[in-house]
């Protein structure tokens, strides 16, 4: 499936269920320049950003912040304005594959804690946005990283 198709085009295919997710593009400013935090996925160990299924009772931005905490130990302020979207194919053993449409929110990191729920399952590392763009699999996420500029909170 072409990850560069628009969400409307993807919905029209009818071949795969399209499921919403939320993600946090976690960033900090070091020596006047932004850095973004990437984490590894649990199974494939590919670099990505914290993301997950929507959580009942939370907004999409709040879900993104919760995922950043669980997956990377991030404490910070998540902007409620969506930065962008990307799609990826999720292989689910029991329910079949699905196309995930991920809303991305910028999250300014105030601190990283050493103990968090998924600490033993993932690695985390800071990169310049340009280097981070080279590490991720999604072309749309890579473009978002390349064009990223810090957001005022």
Automatic annotation (TrEMBL):
Keywords: Hydrolase, Magnesium, Metal-binding. Pfam families: NUDIX. Residues 19-149 form the Nudix hydrolase domain. GO terms for molecular function: hydrolase activity. The keyword Magnesium applies. The keyword Nucleotide-binding does not apply. Its cofactor is Mg(2+). It comes from the Bacteria. This is NUDIX hydrolase.
